[in-house]
Design brief:
single chain; about 190 residues; alpha+beta; 7 helices
Length: about 190
């Protein structure tokens, strides 16, 4: 009797959980494994980003003494009559690497930066968080989005900070006109 009850239970369970695909709007042609394509798409995107990151120049130096570097830049800025553009981020950050590459590979932007700024990449990474330097410009207890930009005058005084580099983005890169405006005015 127990075996018969178990067999009946399994049979009814199978019947209860089966679908009648004839009544579906797409007549049974619907794919039921929607999670797999989404996961594969995410994996493909991560792989593509990793490949892109591997090819881009790595301008951040985790071993650098950032404060000493900035002090030298201030002295140089006074002599050359330029401001200092600090790009905060790290070699781990695809958007940081994209921005640097975008500026270096766009002649009009590179010329604008070279003419008006001394350009420095302030490292933030597990190897060196540069907390003392960062604390001069931002609240280090707040979560930061990278990259962000700090503009200093010739004397090392902060003129402006752009915390949301997303305002400079376009698709999977940066908008040339917005970046140009930022370099010309310090604002977007």
């Amino acid at each position: 009797m127990k075996k018969l009850t178990l067999i009946a239970f399994l049979g009814l369970s199978t019947l209860a959980f089966s679908q009648d695909v004839k009544n579906l709007p797409d007549k049974g042609k619907q794919k039921t494994a929607l999670i797999v394509p989404t996961e594969q798409k995410d994996l493909d995107a991560k792989k593509k980003a990793a490949e892109e990151k591997a090819k881009l120049p790595k301008p951040y130096n985790p071993k650098a003494d950032a404060q000493a570097d900035i002090n030298k830049l201030v002295a140089q800025a006074k002599k050359e009559g330029k401001n200092i553009m600090i790009q905060a981020g790290g070699n781990w950050c695809i958007w940081c690497l994209r921005f640097n590459n975008f500026v270096q590979e766009t002649p009009e932007l590179k010329e604008l930066v070279d003419k008006n700024y001394l350009y420095y990449h302030l490292n933030y990474s597990p190897d060196n968080k540069n907390e003392k330097v960062f604390s001069k410009y931002v609240n280090i207890k707040e979560r930061q989005g990278y990259p962000f930009f700090i503009i200093l005058d010739q004397n090392g005084k902060m003129i402006h900070i752009l915390k949301d580099s997303g305002t400079l983005e376009k698709d999977n890169g940066y908008d040339k006109e917005k970046v140009k405006q930022f370099f010309e005015t310090g604002k977007v």
